[in-house]
Amino acid sequence: MNIGIILAGGIGSRMGIVDKPKQFIDIYGKPIIVYTLETFDNHPEIDYIGVVCLDEWMDDLKILLRKYEINKVKWLIKGGMSRQESVYNAIIAISKDVNDDDILVIHDSVRPLVSHKIISNNISSAKQFGATDTVIPSTDTIIKSLDGLQIHEVPNRSELYIGQTPQSFKFELIKRAHETAIESNKLNSTDDCQLVLDLGEKVKLVMGDKLNFKITSFDDLLLLKAIIKLGKTEMV
Ligand SMILES: Nc1ccn([C@@H]2O[C@H](COP(=O)(O)OP(=O)(O)OP(=O)(O)O)[C@@H](O)[C@H]2O)c(=O)n1
Ligand SMILES: C[C@](O)(CO)[C@H](O)COP(=O)(O)O
């Protein structure tokens, strides 16, 4: 079984909009989270979906699921204080319904342009290797600075990638990774692959796409609107 876990438990503080979290912002009349959910709902290899949501937005989410006929959602899960806690809440919520070898495809609700190809590649890689990250090669040189004032390192760009989601895992592995992190008091990781690496397990890479960017700040919204508008125009 392949399960999409869509994370919508964040408040979007870096967006700077106070009335709603960024995943509920409308883009041409449809909230960002719906774009993401539709792609998972329509994917033939995704069996069920769990959505992790801010408690106070759960009713709005339920209305959207009905309105847009998102039918594969089986679990509605309360968000945690951190991304890591939100993922763990999902692991606990679905645990009685899944087997160790089932695949969790964990995705940020605020990456609405994820493609079916990326999801398919995640599933086949996680089935084969147990843990998979979606990445794109870094096209910029990355500068490491420990103090934000001077350069401490210029890592070799050919070894650097930008991490995206989905990140996909066999259920047993990601559950063990989270439990081990909690036992060692690591509670605020922004990346599930890091927790699997901490176990000494390998994480395979699949190629993402520049378009699968994360909506973080206001400029990302402008970009998303432009891309969706262009896409629609080109389809006409
Ligand atoms: N407690 C949290 C924090 C984040 N997320 C989710 O994790 C994804 C990536 O996180 P990020 O972009 O950092 O979202 P926010 O935490 O909402 O943003 P910010 O850091 O600006 O507050 C988002 O889909 C977000 O909803 C979550 O489910 N639970
Ligand atoms: C998981 C992630 O989206 C990969 O790019 C990213 O690590 C989330 O980090 P954030 O600090 O929650 O934006």
Automatic annotation (TrEMBL):
Pfam families, alphabetized: IspD (PF01128)
Organism whose genome encodes this protein: Keratinibaculum paraultunense
GO terms, molecular function: 2-C-methyl-D-erythritol 4-phosphate cytidylyltransferase activity
Function: Catalyzes the formation of 4-diphosphocytidyl-2-C-methyl-D-erythritol from CTP and 2-C-methyl-D-erythritol 4-phosphate (MEP).
NCBIfam families for this protein: ispD (TIGR00453), PRK00155.1-3 (NF001183)
Stated name of the protein: 2-C-methyl-D-erythritol 4-phosphate cytidylyltransferase
Site (Transition state stabilizer): 14, 22
Its EC number(s): 2.7.7.60
UniProt cross-references to PANTHER family, sorted A to Z: 2-C-METHYL-D-ERYTHRITOL 4-PHOSPHATE CYTIDYLYLTRANSFERASE, CHLOROPLASTIC (PTHR32125), RIBITOL-5-PHOSPHATE CYTIDYLYLTRANSFERASE (PTHR32125:SF8)
SUPFAM superfamilies assigned to the protein according to its UniProt record, in alphabetical order: Nucleotide-diphospho-sugar transferases
UniProt keyword annotations, A-Z: Isoprene biosynthesis, Nucleotidyltransferase, Transferase
